[in-house]
Amino acid sequence: MKIATPQTYEDRIRAIQIYRSARVGPRNYAKLVQKSNSYEDAWESLCQAYTDQKIDHKLLCDFDDAKEELERGDAYGASLLFLNDPSYPKLLKTTEAAPPFIWAKGHLELFDLPQIAIVGARNASLEGARMAQGLARELCENGYCVVSGLARGIDTSAHNGALFAHTVGVIAGGLDIHYPRQNAQLQENIAERGLLISEMPFGHKPQASNFPQRNRIIAGISSATIVIECTRRSGTMITANDANAMGRDVMAVPGHPLNPRSEGPNYLIREGATMVRNIGDILEALGEAIQKNIPPEPDTETEALPPKTDWAKMGIDEIEGRTVRDLNGEVTNISP
Q: Residue 114: which of 222, 198, 193 has the closest Cα?
């Protein structure tokens, strides 16, 4: 049985109440709605279940709180997309425990494009940042939409590389909360020129438990996930594992075995992930013919990266021992 999409304003409030109540995840939400004749009935069934299981009714979402969330979303210009709405991400809909609804701000038509996730380390190296930005740009030139999580490092570079065309930012807090603060302007730019989504209510500040949920959505809306730099124990690996469990393609950019940032990608490649050296490897893995296009220059501010000539010199200096780079990507000259 399909979950009916709320048709009235009151039904939308009840749906929010149900999902925002304690101990109600996507599966319990689906069970309540599917066995009920209306959202009002589903709400009454939840209240009765709380009584039967001796759960404090204070843990139920208040009607006024749910109404406020809906009003804040409307005032922000966001769309509340329920599971059976035509605009709900099609791939996400097919995943186990898909969120019953998400908030979205921006260009919903981006969901019609094939989605590719690019994720990685927050303390990315300059090489990793450049790789993320370049691959994101080239994916957009070949008709894809780039998905990432608006974190520092690789996520930021991926969004910047795709912002001139197509990018979706999945955030762990409410759409109106800027996190991290350094990416406040980037988040606003994506809301205006791309698409922001979240399953969290407005005003919700990200907590540690929210990031695995965000990562699940990143993997869920994407047909493939590309990993660039991360340790074996990281949120990036959670996203990759989610993608693998969903039967989606997982790809990774290899790195030097002595670099801690390379642990995650190298492990994934060893376990069968597609090795990515350039856009050609990605398109080949996706069964696409390489399109030779002249890349347009992004018309938005991006992270400051060195020009190609300086980049080459920096690489040679590092290889030949004239510079060293710490885990934050900072370069120090150690010889004239």
A: 222
**pTM of the entire predicted model:** 0.82
Q: Read out DSSP for 159-213?
A: HHHHTTS-EEEE-SS-TTS-SSGGGHHHHHHHHHHSEEEESSPTTPPP-TTHHHH
Mean pLDDT of 157-185: 95
| 157 close to 129: Cβ distance less than 8 angstroms | yes
Cβ neighbours for 153, distance < 8 A, ≥ 6 positions apart: 120, 121, 122, 123, 124, 128, 129, 229
Per-residue pLDDT for 278 more than 90?
yes
Please provide residue 182's backbone torsions phi and psi, each rounded to the nearest 5 degrees.
-65, -20
CA atoms of 28 and 25, how far apart (whole Å): 5
Helix 9-20 with 39-52: angle, nearest 10 deg? 30
Interior angle at CA 152, CA 305 and CA 102, nearest 5: 130
- Give the chain's length: 336
Task: Identify the bridge partners of residue 274 per DSSP, sorted by sequence position.
Answer: 251
How many CB atoms neighbour CB 285 within 10 A? Answer: 17
pLDDT band at 97 (very low <50, low <70, confident <90, very high): confident
